[in-house]
Design brief:
DNA polymerase, domain 1, single chain, 5-stranded mixed beta sheet, 13 helices, Beta Polymerase, domain 2, 10% strand, elongated
């Protein structure tokens, strides 16, 4: 484990302590330790352990934690604070313009726990009503979140809506007379879309052959019945090859949350899936 990784442990610990409003003296000392570790000319994993606390910027307590990281690859105090922090709150540290203190306000006062919720609050002009957040900060947060989503291959629903509808029509023409339905996060109208997904009543061979014949689609991953293609605008599309007999069942499965689909599976012995209530309009779960 190199110095940069060890420094990241202390940097994250410091930020999470600030987010939780814990002892500011300790959080600052961990931030200072992270800075000192990054600047060391020698790798800590090659340094005598009993000499670590003598290094500039590293005291006894920090030295013990460095040794813990070197020996176990983990830091107990960091793991504990991570377990108490929603994943969305930790992810907010990736958004430029909002530091730990502002994230504390977003979480504790605004009761927002995800980046998607934060963006929605900004769009509603709610952020600027809180201390430390002006209109300029709010607009900067919007820009930073949208850039963050784009850089990680995620998009807002509104950003992909037109493309998704047009793409569905293109795919229907390509695979006609086979059936094709839009499923997944877009079908559920979730705020954040990671990729567009479609169920196609065609064989795997047909899907691969027809899409590879079109320049705009590039195959980046495939399994027996699933394909992921990239598109020029950066949105990946995933296609599921299914039989006609399983078409609507697969539409529901691939547009459901895991918990919902588990409940559906329990009802299968009662022929729930085969009942005449299954219509494409019903798979928006």
């Amino acid at each position: 484990m190199n110095n940069y990784t060890i420094a990241d442990y202390f940097s994250l610990l410091s930020k999470l302590m600030d987010i939780h409003g814990e002892n500011s003296f300790k959080s600052k000392s961990y931030a200072s330790a992270a800075f000192a570790i990054e600047k060391l000319p020698e790798q800590l994993n090659t340094f005598p352990k009993d000499k670590i606390e003598s290094l500039k910027g590293i005291g006894f307590s920090t030295a013990q934690k460095i040794i813990e990281i070197l020996e176990s690859g983990e830091l107990k105090v960091l793991n504990e604070i991570i377990s108490k922090t929603p994943a969305g709150i930790i992810e907010m540290l990736s958004i430029k313009g909002i530091g730990p203190k502002k994230i504390n306000t977003i979480w504790k006062e605004m009761e927002i726990e995800t980046i998607g919720e934060l963006l929605y609050a900004c769009k509603e002009n709610r952020l600027k009503n809180f201390k430390g957040f002006g209109e300029k900060t709010q607009n900067n947060v919007i820009d930073s979140i949208e850039f963050y989503f784009k850089s990680k291959g995620s998009f807002l629903y509104a950003q992909v809506k037109t493309f998704a509808i047009e793409l569905e029509q293109i795919l229907k023409e390509i695979f006609s007379p086979n059936h094709i339905f839009n499923v997944g996060d877009f079908a559920r109208q979730l705020e954040i879309i990671n990729q567009l997904e479609f169920v196609v009543s065609a064989t795997s061979e047909e899907i691969e052959k027809k899409l590879l014949a079109i320049d705009i689609f590039n195959l980046i991953e495939k399994t027996e019945n699933e394909f992921i293609f990239s598109t020029p605008n950066g949105i990946n599309i995933k296609l599921f090859s299914v039989d006609n007999a399983d078409l609507f069942e697969k539409c529901i499965q691939h547009s459901s949350s895991a918990s919902f689909w588990n409940e559906v599976e329990k009802l299968k012995p009662n022929n729930f899936i085969s009942c005449n209530l299954l219509h494409q309009d019903l798979y928006l779960f």
